[in-house]
Each structure stands twice: as C-alpha cells, then as structure tokens.
Amino acid sequence: MVGFKATDVPPTATVKFLGAGTAACIADLITFPLDTAKVRLQIQGEKQGPVRAAASAQYRGVLGTILTMVRTEGPCSLYNGLVAGLQRQMSFASVRIGLYDSVKQFYTKGSEHAGIGSRLLAGSTTGALAVAVAQPTDVVKVRFQAQARAGGGRRYQSTVDAYKTIAREEGFRGLWKGTSPNVARNAIVNCAELVTYDLIKDALLKANLMTGSCPPFSVWVPGTW
C-alpha cells in the first residue's frame, strides 16, 4: 500500500480471524492432555454417592489422572476428542479474538478512539457469538474426553458419529446443551482478557514505553512491537 512500509500495513480481518484460530489450535495440541485430565476429574463419581465416590476415586491429581489413563487406556486416550477440540478452537478463537477489532470498530463507527464501554461491548459480543457458533464442537469434545476406552462400550466411534448420535438421540438442540452458562462465562472472560489487554497497551503507548500501533492479537513482525 502506498505510504506504508511492509511492516506498517495492518493485518486484515481475515488474517486476524485465521491467525487467532491457528494459534489456538497449536495451543490446544500442546495442552489437550491437561484438558482431558480436567474433564475426567470433574466427572469422577458422577453416578455414585459422595462417600462411595471418595472411597473409590480412580483419578487422583492431574499427574495421577494422566498416568492412570496411559496405563489403562493407552497414550492415545489423552487425545480423545482432539478433532472436535481443534474444530472448536478454529471456530471459537477465530470469532472471539479474531473479530474483536472489527466489532470494536463497528461499535465506534470507525473512530480510532474507543471508550471502555465500546470495548466491553465488543468483548462481550465476540465472546457470546463465539460460543453460539462453537458450542456443538465443545459438547462433542467433552463427550469424547469423558468416554473411557477401557472395558469397551464406547458410545461414539468417531467425531462425525458423535454429532450424528447426539442429534439423533437428543435432538438437534442436544448439540447446544449448556449454551446459556457458557455464553455468560465467555462474555465475561473475553471482556476481562481482551479489554484489559487493550487498555494496558494504550497506557504503554501513551507513556512512550513502546512504539508503533499493534491491534490486539495482530500479526507480529520482528523489529516491530
């Protein structure tokens, strides 16, 4: 573009959208075993009484859960639901993070000076919208993570089968179970994360502690902020 150096051209909305989703997928690949362990610990003892559940707990602690799953179900069990997890990140993070700047500009009608109200509104909008789009992938991911391989009797044989089974047995709305609390949670989380980042970045720029203008989660080029 005329008047801009290569490093000065701001990334397009498409680049932000795809960049946020890709980065989230990479993070998910690394941390997925921890997420699976979290789900197993959360659902442990669900069908038992509190006394019996405490006495017969199969998983104890994060490391203990991971080691138990590897020993009884094999290492691949730590990545149960990975396909749905990557689908979730590509749709969820792309909207939640990648569209934040665009939505903020929409609320401020293109003004470069966004107030905290516009930022909060943009954060809650993209957070809620991301859940509305990605909730089916989240449901399938958690169902897979909760499904133990040991002893057979697996309900879902593949990601596509999980979508079909849930829709057939629980209705199409079954894929959106838990949407309301998830929307509320992620609207708040998105406001806390992105708006805080936005405000701190502006404060640092005004104090001349860094140079350049770097929109939230835009493409970073060595030699620039």
**Low-pLDDT ranges:** 217-225
| Share of helical residues | 55-70%
- What radius of gyration results from the CA coordinates? 21 Å
- Please state the average pLDDT score: 83
Determine the strand fraction and express it as a percent band. under 5%
Report on this structure.
One of its GO terms (biological process) is transmembrane transport. This is Uncoupling protein 2. Its main location: membrane. With 225 residues, the chain is mainly alpha-helical. It has helices at residues 13-43, 50-55, 61-73, 82-96, 100-107, 116-146, 159-170, 179-206. The two termini are 20 Å apart.
What labels describe this entry?
mainly alpha, Uncoupling protein 2, Mito_Metabolite_Transporter, 225 residues
Concise overview:
With 225 residues, this protein is mainly α.
List the helices and strands and how they pair.
Blueprint lengths: L12 H31 L6 H6 L5 H13 L8 H15 L3 H8 L8 H31 L12 H12 L8 H28 L19
Helix pairs in contact: 1-3, 1-4, 4-6, 5-6, 6-7, 6-8
